[in-house]
Amino acid sequence: MPKETLTLLILGDLHGQMPKLLQKNFDILLCTGDICSEELRPYIKKYLKARNKDENISFRKICSKEKEEELEKKSLERGRKILEKLDKLNKPVIIVPGNWDQSSYLDGKKQGKDKFTQICKGLENIHNVQNKKLRLGELSFVGHGSTSAPEPLDKKSEQDFPDKHSFKDYTQRQSYFAKVYAKLQAHFEKAEPPIILLTHNVPYKTKLDKVHAPQSYAHNKHYGSKIARKLIEEYSPLLCIGGHIHEGQGKTKLGKTLCINAGYGKDINTVVVLDMKKKKVHKVEVLSS
């Protein structure tokens, strides 16, 4: 007999740190990405600072290939340990990759091999739903990860850009995300409600995605996912669960969809209780140790 309520335990933005599980009784665990660690961040910051003075500077001037590979390996090893611990809970664990998780594409740019899928292998309870649909019991899940900024969805002409390189980069990314969006639309068309949209980045232009960081180029800007917002506006899933924007944790409604920014890190859990008879969210609780 189907359960009257289902409890979702949500983790977000662990950045290589082993999470505390503060809710012992739950049915499904969801993770919004950034499971692997971020050893490369200091080098990326240094590179971006140097590029402000010299836009032609190479990342290799800041970080050697050997050092990058060493730090990447450490990041993946930490991510794998976390996934192994979650797998041992013997509950379904549904995940998408974040911008630190070394999937094959990041923000529409090819990154090489899909190393995130590799660290998920052999873990029977781990379900990576990146650009996929999953039916689990009475719930459908659709996933969209590996994005850290608003996706370029509109076609533009070359005169909109300062140079050919910028135009080519935008066009390639726009083409990639158009395909991703079409794939996600197809999943939504076939998915049986209630549907949960699991993302890394939260929906664009809500109170969940505004950056508050004076040192950042994105300060005071909305930096969420345009694809997540379009899918919500078109299909009204029951829930959209994401993270990434650390200043925007909490919840808000977008149409009929409850949107949650659960990117709290290792010490805080978000718990969502679903009333399966009414197909509604019964309760949202944030637990801290």
Write up this protein.
With 289 residues, the chain is an alpha/beta fold. It has one domain: Purple Acid Phosphatase, chain A, domain 2 (4-Layer Sandwich). Helix content is 27%, strand content 24%. It is built from five helices and 14 strands. It has helices spanning 41-53, 65-87, 115-120, 164-190, 226-235, and strands spanning 5-11, 28-31, 93-95, 105-106, 109-110, 126-128, 133-136, 139-144, 195-201, 239-243, 250-254, 257-261, 268-275, 280-288. The strands form three sheets. The protein has a six-stranded mixed β-sheet with strand order 6-3-2-1-13-14. The longest helix is centred in the middle third of the chain and has 27 residues, at 164-190. The chain is globular. The model has no long low-confidence stretch (mean pLDDT 94).
Summarize this structure as a short list of keywords or feature phrases.
single chain; 289 residues; alpha/beta; Purple Acid Phosphatase, chain A, domain 2; 27% helix; 24% strand
